[in-house]
Write a structure and sequence with these properties.
Blueprint: H1 3-24, H2 31-70, E1 87-91, E2 94-98, E3 136-140, H3 142-148, E4 164-172, E5 181-187, E6 193-201, E7 216-219, E8 225-231, E9 234-240, H4 244-255
Length: 258
């Protein structure tokens, strides 16, 4: 047998062997295996939908708890309803959020009528040092006060010589290095406060827009009186149990150039 015949016979026998081996291969049924995989996929999808819903509900619960903590009462979460009325629903594996409110505020039954739309809270001048709140105060000597105020102190020569300085209190507004107001309290020989001189930035007064030198006299319920005047950047109030003409002379002295 020559080489060509040998090669042809070899190829024939190889092809026959391959055909016989293919006939002997048994292909298993893939149905049960696919069923198991499909059930696992369904479980994974359900778990993923449940996790998404749980995250939404966790965020909603955290928001409500944060609101309750900030307003110190769980009942105050109802205050959000006029702005946000949220309904969470689980249906078909989805989460929906509805925003809006059908509530309409009503003044029926209120003891006082609501303010008009253009109403503004009136400015209240307490005619004293500004309310303390978070601001800083310091009691100093008169010499130290001259160095620590934002303004130049007026002349105090008109204050009667029989009165002695009992206290000098500086007021520092938030974040300021120098005081924006100074209160001087003078007492008589019996150590009874008889005169108060308040020096402050003009913007603190309800009469800030009024001209310099114009006087505003107020009689107080305790029988004393005060005189308020503006000069430059200063608003000055003289208050005490002295006679009106004596208070007027002190106010004149404060208006004079130092």
């Amino acid at each position: 047998m020559n080489k060509s015949d040998f090669d042809a016979e070899f190829d024939r026998l190889l092809e026959e062997a391959v055909r016989q081996s293919e006939n002997d291969i048994v292909v298993p049924d893939a149905g049960p295996s696919w069923t198991r995989v499909e059930k696992r996929l369904v479980r994974e999808r359900r778990r993923a939908r449940w996790m998404r819903g749980a995250r939404w509900f966790s965020l909603a619960a955290a928001s409500l708890l944060a609101g309750a903590f900030l307003f110190h009462s769980l009942q105050t979460t109802e205050a959000f309803r006029p702005m946000f009325e949220m309904a969470y629903k689980m249906k078909g594996g989805t989460v929906s959020m509805q925003i809006g409110s059908t509530d309409r505020p009503s003044a029926e039954g209120a003891k006082t009528p609501p303010p008009p739309d253009d109403w503004e809270e009136p400015y209240v001048d307490n005619r004293d040092l500004p309310q303390e709140g978070a601001f800083r105060r310091m009691t100093v000597t008169l010499e130290a006060a001259k160095e620590q105020t934002q303004f130049e102190l007026p002349s105090l020569d008109a204050i009667p010589g029989d009165l002695t300085l009992q206290a000098a209190t500086l007021h520092f507004s938030g974040g300021e290095a120098k005081a924006s107001a100074l209160k001087l309290v003078y007492a008589d020989k019996g150590e009874t406060p008889a005169l108060t001189v308040l020096l402050r930035k003009r913007a603190f007064s309800a009469h800030a827009e009024d001209p310099d030198g114009q006087r505003f006299v107020t009689e107080l319920p305790d029988g004393t009186a005060d005189i308020e005047v503006n000069r430059g950047e200063l608003n000055m109030i003289v208050r005490g149990s002295l006679k009106p003409e004596e208070l007027g002379r002190i106010a004149d002295g404060l208006l004079a150039k130092p």
